[in-house]
Amino acid sequence: MTLLEYLRKEMGMSQVQLSKKISVNPTAITQIERGNRKSWPKLRKQLSQVFGVDENLLFDSDGWPRKINVDF
């Protein structure tokens, strides 16, 4: 799981709600959360602002989402 997905779920937000909030296609959120594509700089900034965290916490220097281990 990526930290992005974890934070989104903790806020009770769907991928569609998040995508509308930052005006991107929901597919982009899905692909980034799954680690299938990296994020572009503008999107990294928008996502970090939505979650109130530094973008370096959400993404590595190349724009790939950071993965975390979460036990449910």
TrEMBL record:
Positions in coiled-coil regions: none
Pfam families referenced in this protein's UniProt entry, alphabetically: HTH_3
SUPFAM superfamilies given in the database record: lambda repressor-like DNA-binding domains
Gene Ontology molecular functions: DNA binding
HTH cro/C1-type domain sequence ranges: 4-58
Transmembrane segments: none
InterPro entries in the cross-refs: Cro/C1-type_HTH, Lambda_DNA-bd_dom_sf
Protein name, as recorded: Transcriptional regulator
Native organism: Anaerobacillus alkalidiazotrophicus
Taxonomic lineage of the native organism: Bacteria, Bacillati, Bacillota, Bacilli, Bacillales
